[in-house]
Each structure stands twice: as structure tokens, then as C-alpha cells.
Specification:
This protein is an alpha+beta fold and 156 residues long. It is built from 6 helices and 4 strands. It folds into 2 domains: 62 residues, no CATH class; 54 residues, no CATH class. A 4-stranded antiparallel beta sheet has the order 1-2-3-4, covered by helices on one side.
Amino acid sequence: MHGATEIAPLSSATTEAGERAAGFEAGRARFVFDAATLSFRPLRYPDTHPFGAYRSSRGLAPGDAAAALAAYGPNATPVPVPAFGQLLKQQLVAPFFVFQVFCVGLWCLDEYWWEGVGGGGGWRGASRGGRAADPVPPSPSPQVLLRLHPAHARRL
């Protein structure tokens, strides 16, 4: 029940006192029928002891553990693990990924295919319309390099 209105099936439930009563489970909460008020109430948890009693607790005896399991259910939180296909679909339609693919397409249309597919800003001749590769400088230069697109370079 994920916040939606549903009819929960009634079942036999164990109260916190160990008695059998009609009950149902809504979401992760258990409800039992209270004959005194003629209504369903949430299961009461043992939270009235002083703090020191909880701090010094060493767990439940095996008989008490079985009774607590019958009354409250397992102490577990199920975590659904989505399938690989679902995760892949979510990633492929994520806005940032779509933007990245769009930018790579623009770079490829603008003759910067090497930078678009992850080659980085290296000295590659193939990214300039198939001309011969520029030599790689032997060491980094302190000069700032500005590489213009061929269409912009003609204007200078």
C-alpha cells in the first residue's frame, strides 16, 4: 500500500499480549482489533520502560523472541534491487546524459570529433578535417595556446 486507498485483507494477528485477534497490515504498520473499543488500533510497541532498561538490555530470550516475531513481524526492511535494464533506461534518459550526447553530436558536426568522443584537447590532426597530425610538443610550454576553428581562423 503506497499511499493509495486499498482494502486490506483481515487475518488472524497476535497482539502484544500474545492473544489472537483479527488484524490487518497497512503499509508497514500492523493493526489489531480492540474488543473494548470495537475498533482497530495500531499495535503498541514496548516503549514505556525507563531508558536504563533499554540500555542494559541483552536481547530477548528464545521464547520471547518467537512471541515478538509473531506479534511484530520480522525486524527487516526490504530494499528492492532494480533490474539492470531498468537502471540503464533511467540513466539513458537522464537530462545530463541526454545533454552530453547532444553536445558530442554538435562537436562532431563542427569537425571536432576527437574532442567530442573523449580525445581531449590534444594535438590531433584528424580532428581538423583529415590534415596531417601536428607534432606533439616535447614538453609543456608556458604559452597559452588558442586553437580556432578553421571557419573562424579565416576571419583573422
